[in-house]
Amino acid sequence: METLLSLTIGLLFAAAIYLMLARNVLRFLFGMILLSNGANLLIFTAGRLTFGVPPLIADGALLPPPDVANALPQALVLTAIVIGFGLFAFALMLVFRAYATLGTLYSDEMRVAEPLNDDLPQPAPPAFERVEKGTRT
Amino acid sequence: MSWVIVAPILIPLATGIIAFLLREKPMGKWVSVAGSALGLLAACLLMAEVLRTGVVAAQMGNWAAPFGITFVADLLAGVMVVITAITALAVSIYATGEITRRMEYLGYHTLFQMLIVGVTGAFLTGDIFNLYVWFEVMLISSFGLLILGGRPEQIDGGVKYVTLNLISTVLFLSAVGLLYGMTGTLNMADLSIAVERVENQGLLTVVAMMFMVAFGVKAAVFPLFFWLPASYHTPAFSVSAVFAGLLTKVGVYALIRVFTLIFNHDIGYTHTVLLWVAGFTMVTGVLGAAAQMDFRKILSFHIVSQIGYMILGLALFTPLAMVGAVFYLVHHIVVKANLFLIAGVAERLTGSTDLRRIGGLYTYAPFLAFLFLIPAFSLAGFPPLSGFWAKYILVKASLEAEFWFIAFIALAVGLLTIYSMTKIWAEVFWTPHPDKITPKLSNLTRAERWRLLTPIAGLATLTVIIGLFPEPFVQFAERTAAQLLDSTAYVTAVLGGVP
Fold this sequence. Notes:
heterodimer; A: mainly alpha; Helix Hairpins; 0% strand; disordered C terminus; B: two-stranded antiparallel sheet; 78% helix; globular
């Protein structure tokens, strides 16, 4: 079982890296999902796999019976899934917004913040003249 | 006494929530300022407690140490929390003069306070998985702050910032998973003992390298820093000031913590890698800055270069070098945040941050020029300012460790830093403005002048104080370094008497 899971993790990481090397940011994001799922499986597997024994402590006992499943990696994975989901939702919105604003999904065409030919920008009046009354507090 | 240690986290959390409820009212920004002031008070109380007892530890929910989540404040964590609170207060005052009502409505103050929550939590936690969670809190708030306002540059910079930081996060998570698999614990104090029991020490080094890369992305060290200069010049000035001051330093803090407490089994390998990284980081950062023609881009590249100095202190791993790293960390946060705030005022007065488009500040705003000189010269390492002592200690440490070449690099990079600062000085302050406008401070309203210049003057005063009276700060850094190199006090405080 460990071998199978290890191979799966390796496959997920490999596919993720392949996707993340693409210039298309959306593909990068798909790679990101695979990568975080790979990491979750990795924590799960590294925390040892045990079959069939739920980590429950019997009434009145202080310790769980021996050979129970380790509940901690599952708690960690759960936390990581929730956080990963939130981050992914944000990243997806950001990429959508980038497509709407910048008109491209290709990372090497996104050069607004760092223009290739660093020419002088168009003259702009100083900020205190630009701002109309009442917009700044 | 666990309230002392959680107060610096809970106060900004509460402030953030109140600021969110008041986001439609002009009150919101004053709530943020008041909360930051309270946070500073709480941080000072924690620091006093740490100075009195050595290491303060608290177990959440009273679960005994290796099982529950632990919060620990040793001297390094304590001073980082204090300096975070100082930066937060300065930036929140500055924000009252800069942030527009629209950005306030979109939740600027809430995101800002949540960022402080994440940063403080990362400094105080004693559990490596919990560190991951605090990193995420910090990261998601910083994402929001970075793109708040939604100009095309911000979205562009945001894409690069978000994607590269996400990779580092997943790498960190995988490393935590593997480390847990090898040692069976997540508590950092417990880990420092458990790693000695790991049979295959080679595998441990592999995991150590995974941590180094993950934190290296956060700290913006040499081959992994590209997200930083791509994004730090795009958001509001308050935002880039707090990013520049704090975010990369959390990465450096995590590196220092992990590579002194946990992974000190193979110093010959890991710390040699760090030494190379430090050298390349210093040089590429400063050369990148030399090529830029934008106020904030120059400063961004200088963050990278200065991170190299801190990593250098960690890499040498001698007591004196650790003193230098700690001193540098504290000095740098104050100076760098201040320089970004000054860039904000310069932009307000002259209309741009592009060096070729602005000028004339020396003639018309000499007070601002004076305020710029202090952090700029401190960054470059002029005596008697704080940066001089930081660089002096590090260079002395590398000479004592007989790393002649790295000492030479540290000195040469200092010289090139002066070059960049002179470029800003000449173009922004000395040359007349190309459009013949008069960038006087009196163009701002009276309230704006107070709100923008008070934090700048305050941070500059702090820089001068550290520079003129370095003795208590160096002594403090010596105690901190001793505590970092000998983890007994840390481990005992967390695990109790159990070895």
